[in-house]
Amino acid sequence: MKTTSTPDTAQSEAYVSTIALFQIFSMSAKEDKVYLRLSPAWRDLWFVLSEQRKVRAEVADRTTVRMLREIVRDQMTADDEEDVVLTQNFVKRTNGGEGPVTSVATQEKTEVTVVEKQEQMKAIWMAKVSSPAYQRMLGQRSLLPISHFRDDALAAIENNQVTIICGETGCGKSTQLPAYVLERQLSQGRPCKIYCTEPRRISAITLAQRVSEELGEHKNELGTARSLVGYAIRLESHVSSTTRLIYATTGIVLRMLESKNGFDEVTHVVIDEVHERRCVFAVPRPPLSFSLYSRV
Prior knowledge:
By secondary structure, the protein is α/β, with parallel strands linked by helices. It folds into 2 domains: about 1-100; about 120-295, 3-Layer(aba) Sandwich (Rossmann fold). Helices cover about 55% and strands about 10% of the residues. The protein has helices spanning about 10-25, 40-95, 105-130, 130-140, 150-160, 175-185, 200-215, 250-260; strands at about 160-165, 195-200, 230-235, 235-240, 245-250, 270, 290-295.
């Protein structure tokens, strides 16, 4: 205690004793509450010692992480240099260094893969249409006002990069129009991945559940490999590799825009309830289609 002073010997002994107790019991899970037996003054000293230990541990962790990052960065740099050398040597051996290597077999394989994907999309759609649950819900969906404008809305979305659709509450904008686009794309075997933004978390969840049910899917299939519909909200995501329609909060989609490849597979973006929140979206590439839904 060369740097700490106390008014009397008793407090000096209590100070040293508290530090000794902390060193002995603070790392034990069974005795982590031993400080509750101390008086308030020495209990505060225990808390101060705990904070100091936490700060030292964080500093040590940051140092370790920094060292590991440097090791990984050096390893990645070495691997990249090795890959460049191997690629250059391969080009020299196979093509004499005179331009890129082209392969007819690779092109044919790519064309076959595209055809297989189209057939797979059509098969998925036919399986959905033929299910009794889908046929049962189709009758209820046809009663909504938006069903009378299905063809007009799809034609406008296909022929324009940005489409604004206005309708009264309950007409079916949020549930039917994204489903119409999904059905049209799948029935024609075209690639499809639709993001529908919602201003609130509860809206994204309930709409995804409703649309999944209307497509004839079981309640527990939402967001799984057996479903075409999912949702993504903060700290929770029910999306699989087969999901083609995602209801997400606006913040999720905005964070996707910050990523370099966030919109690579997205074909349509639906901004629902656009009148409630001012949003600025940058269109990543021309093929992407935007639809903005709003109440009258």
